[in-house]
Amino acid sequence: MTGGVSFGEFVSRAQHAGQLVVQPRMGMSSPGEMRAGLQATMRARAVTVGTITLDSFTRVGDHHSARCALRDGHPLNGYPIVAHDLATTAAVLDGLLENGFPVQVRHGSADPSDIFTALMATGLNATEGGPVSYCLPYSRRPLVDTVRIWARCCERLADSSGPQAIPHVETFGGCMMGQLCPPSLLIALSVLEGLFFRLHGLRSVSLSYAQQTNTEQDVEAISALRDIAGEVLPDIDWHVVVYAYMGVYPRSAPGALALLAEAAQLAVRAGAARLIVKTVAEAHRIPTIAENVSALESAAAAATRSQRGQPVSDTGIRDEARSIIDAVLDLDPDLDRALVVAFQRGYLDVPYCLHPDNAGRTRSHIDDDGWLRWSRVGALPIARPALRDDGLTSSGLLTALSYVSRRFDMLESAARLPLASPVQC
Predict the structure, then answer these.
(1) First to last CA, the chain
(2) Angle of CA points 229, 233, 238, to nearest 5°
(3) In 3D, which of 27, 67, 70 has the Cα closest to residue 289?
(4) What average pLDDT does the segment 197-226 reach?
(5) How far are the Cα atoms of 37, 53, 122, 138 from residue 103, in angstroms, in the given order?
(6) pTM score of the predicted model
(7) Exposure pattern of 83-98 as b/e (b: 16+ CB <10 Å)?
(8) Do 207 and 238 meet the contact criterion of CB atoms below 8 Å apart?
(9) Residues 161-177: what's their mean pLDDT?
């Protein structure tokens, strides 16, 4: 199956037209529901791209269990693209790609070899992940193995390129652990995985950044990411994708909508091209198709209320990110080896990440203004700023993780308070 516009080209056209592309995280095990979800996404009142999010069995390579679930009629939490046969997935996609509606496969797999085979067989050529960002949070595989596996997968995907089918891979590096990772490290990981994709033949990539705890800090970070990408990836197509907050989401519908609106306005203001949305159901359950469409349309509407090119602060995020990137690249002429060595030496070290290859010597905290700061920097190759190592306890960590949800739910609660009665004199 071929035809249609390439993923990166579609996003680039929209960006040049001043439009923010919005995208759901949708995945259903039923082929009929999956097709209905893609069609609803395409028809939403927004500029959209489609998503096929895979199930947990497929993510870990347990295709036997996925097939058993399909056979027994048990629903899965995503689309089992390997367990479904080629004809089934072709029917799900029938007419969509040819009509210029790009579809991306999202999965979370440290070893996506079978997934790449399945998506390429159906004419899909856009996916996400990376050797670091799909290893550390989701698996215990040695990093040296995932670097080798992802290199091979990227090269296979790159070899499938054609005039109207330019493969696209989005790094998940800017979303490590969802929250509490200071922006400079998110930028560094996103750029390094982008360089890894280019090294292994890909000519169209996207660099991710997850909305964090303070909008002004995020605007500076995304602007820094775009600036550095322009310097180190001048010869390929790239764009920045923002993720609506990846941590604990507000429980109230108004709070969730307000946070999504802030994410959309952040993306526009900072010059990102695409936004991964979240819905009002995020804190409770897997969202329905209708809730996904509502989130897409809400985000698109919010995006129109923001302007690009507004002033950006400079607190040193760009310089810090560039120091990390340059130090990693200086470790070895071969980026594959440099990534592995960087984690061994602690030049890359993700706070609160328990993977065996992560040194675990860095920590962060949220300051009084909501900015995400380093508490401990371990061996990160950055200047040692004035640090506040407050010995974060488990209860303190839980408080930090719920910082955003509490703030937006409190805004919603305050809006519902009755007006005070006038004083009677």
Answers:
(1) 79
(2) 75
(3) 27
(4) 96
(5) 12, 10, 11, 23
(6) 0.92
(7) bbeeeebeebbeebbe
(8) yes
(9) 86
